[in-house]
Specification:
mainly beta, 2 domains, 1 helix
């Protein structure tokens, strides 16, 4: 079963976790995890992924080099003290989270394997930028 950890926040800040609760399998021939969408009361404060579009249009980030090898540099057009850089594997595993302390910052990637990763920049519990990173050595 999926879980929305922050249902009052809009966009990706609602923190949707897929398959967070494992349910017992009662139907081995069909889909056992079919939610009852008709039972939901959707209101204006519910998790709305369309809300992220406005933030993404105003927040600009240069992430380079991409593909990267040992280091990754960020250049932000806006800096805020409560910002962080989050890196995830293609399977959604959290690789690391680093606090962003200035408009231009560099992160070391030497411990990571070659592959494709996804990153997001979160500011005040809101995702303000998302992207894909390739590591090749």
């Amino acid at each position: 079963m999926h879980v929305i950890h922050n249902p009052d926040l809009k966009g990706f800040a609602c923190d949707l976790e897929q398959n967070a609760i494992e349910l017992p399998i009662t139907n081995r021939r069909g889909l056992p995890y079919i939610p009852h969408y008709n039972d939901l009361n959707v209101g204006e404060n519910d998790c709305d992924p369309s809300d992220i579009e406005t933030t993404l249009k105003t927040f600009k980030v240069d992430v380079f080099p991409n593909p990267a090898s040992n280091f990754l540099s960020l250049e932000l057009n806006h800096f805020h003290t409560n910002a962080e850089f989050q890196l995830h594997s293609v399977t959604g595993l959290d690789i690391f989270t680093k606090k962003i302390t200035r408009k231009e910052q560099t992160f070391e990637l030497t411990a990571l394997k070659n592959g494709i990763y996804f990153y997001k920049i979160v500011q005040d519990s809101k995702i303000v930028f998302i992207g894909k990173l390739i590591i090749i050595r």
